[in-house]
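Lab intake sheet, docking and co-folding queue.

SAMPLE TYPE: protein with bound small molecule
LIGAND NAME: S-adenosylmethionine
LIGAND FORMAT: SMILES
REQUESTED OUTPUT: full 3D complex as structure tokens
PRIORITY: normal
SUBMITTED BY: R.K., bench team

The fields below were copied directly from the construct record.
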Amino acid sequence: MPFKIDLDSPHTTPAAADTEARMTADARRRWDHNAALYDVFQWPMELMVMGSSRRRLISLVRGPRVLEVGVGTGQNLPLYAPGIQVDGIDLSGRMIARARRRNAAASVTLYEMDAQDMAFPDAIFDTVVSTCVFCSVPDPVRGLREVRRMLRPDGRAVFLEHMRPHGRFLGPLFDRLDPVVSRRGPHINRPTLDNIAAAGLRIEHVEDLTPSFVKIIVARA
Ligand SMILES: C[S@@+](CC[C@H](N)C(=O)[O-])C[C@H]1O[C@@H](n2cnc3c(N)ncnc32)[C@H](O)[C@@H]1O
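RESULT FIELD (auto-filled):
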């Protein structure tokens, strides 16, 4: 079955809150562990699909205020146009430390913060950006509701995300592989388009990349 949890916010039961706290602590440990070698392992993907897709995604960004969720080691940071003010958050302190080393621009501020519970006031960002993040956030719909809360009424969220493939062969294959892959890295069978809609975001544009389970998505609050 595709992985999907939707714990209502606020949590309906203390047990649900405990489960999410445990999954979030696991995710933090996992990404802290991956931080040192993330850029090395990511390099072939950057050459094949991610490099050009990141540039395309960031070209859709409108400022002046931008939030990047799950900023990781900061691969997108050099791509923002001058004059854009970026707040970047990530659950993993070690990922953030690498992002700080990559980019010391005054227009970028980085925080160790959980996307499921962001410490920003409502409706202050013109664009929210995420690249390959909602495959990893323990409760993706909760995180996506936070993205919606962050957006100004005329703002938009732009996502570059991989998700569960359609198709009779690949979908079930990804379901079978997910428990193994997600022990060390992201989930590979998240229904992220459905999750974005479930969070109350209005999907405006979907672009299939190659492979087609990697997509650029533009959504509004
Ligand atoms: C596959 S990496 C992508 C990093 C970066 N966006 C990129 O494109 O290279 C997933 C990132 O999501 C972060 N992440 C996972 N769960 C998160 C959460 N609840 N809140 C914030 N960041 C989270 C991880 O720490 C990790 O840096």
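REVIEWER NOTE: The longest helix spans residues 14-59.
SIGN-OFF: pending second check by T.M.
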